[in-house]
Amino acid sequence: MLITGGTGFLGQHVARELIAAGDEPIVVGRAFDRLDPTLAVQVETRAVDLRDHAAVMAACAGVDAVVHAGALCSPTGPRLLVRAVNIGGTASVIAGCRRHGVRRLVFISTPSVVFGGRDVVAATEDAPFPRHFISYYAHTKKVGEDLVREAASDLESVILRPAALFGPGETALLPRLIDMARRHRLPIVGGGGNFVDLTYVENAAQAIALALRCDHAVGRTFTITNGEPVQLWDVLRRVLTALGLPPPGPRLPLFVALLLARLEERAAARAGRKPALTRSTVLLLARTQTYDISAARRDLGYRPRVPLEEGITRTLAALRSAR
């Protein structure tokens, strides 16, 4: 089995999950310095840039399944680059699967494809796509889903949408929020009572392993979470308190936060740096996002292995030890 994005946070956990099941995964990526040394000696590695069509197609030779987890997740990255990796890379993976007779493709998407900036409550996989996506990244993932669905006639495909991945080693959202709190720049956006669904990374890897083998999954889309909605700001207060950091606050109205984020994005673009705050991050912090995982439970046999409380405890322990 081949894992694109195999050197990333989710990809490494998928590799461990497959090894535990007796498989011999092949890890595709670029940043092999991020690969856990213990894992590196257990897998075959192939250095491939998702923008290199020929290399991606060649990497698909000799495998029976591909987990396409590779993507550029930056909400503010150059659009041409995000498009080339997320859309072009997905097209190349599909072409490689077709050319080399790969049996199954599991495409890793995001619930952000159905989140348009308003509250989402217990949404199912049938929720409509929004008229406007909260980021270009979300737009490219929707296009990727379209490409995978179009290929379903001659390729067993499954689309998974893991929500808000977290766990030891996560480098995307939580570390940024912790840094903002450390600098006393983490206001409570909106009313502060919004609920969210989180996904401990090992549970997402478990769902991917199920999708690789479950016949009922073919041609389907599944949202993956821990199935335990929580108030976002309660969790963030707990994390910050455990790390000895100041709590979030004061409250900032959503429209003000969106305006400040827009100004920060423009200033960052002029300075050639990453913005400290983006409009997509503001919306993710302010709105309720909960999802119904009944389909994954029923048709994948998905049962989150690590409860939310245990996942938070593990993550806090890792954050403390890294200080």
In summary, what is this structure?
The protein is of the alpha/beta class and 323 residues long. The chain contains 12 helices and 15 strands.
Relevant terms:
12 helices, Rossmann fold, 323 residues, alpha/beta, 44% helix, 7-stranded parallel beta sheet
Walk me through the structure:
The chain is α/β, with parallel strands linked by helices and 323 residues long. The protein has a domain at 2-163 and 199-225 and 291-305: Rossmann fold (3-Layer(aba) Sandwich), CATH 3.40.50.720. The protein has helices spanning 9-20, 37-40, 53-59, 79-99, 136-150, 173-182, 201-213, 232-242, 254-271, 279-286, 294-300, 308-322, and strands at residues 2-4, 26-29, 44-47, 65-68, 104-108, 120-123, 156-162, 165-166, 188-189, 195-196, 199-200, 221-224, 230-231, 251-252, 289-291. A seven-stranded parallel sheet has the order 3-2-1-4-5-7-12, with helices on both faces. Strands 6-15 form a two-stranded parallel ribbon. Strands 8-11 form a two-stranded parallel sheet. Strand 2, helix 2 (37-40) and strand 3 (44-47) form a beta-alpha-beta unit. The protein is globular, with a radius of gyration of 19 Å. The model has no long low-confidence stretch (mean pLDDT 95).
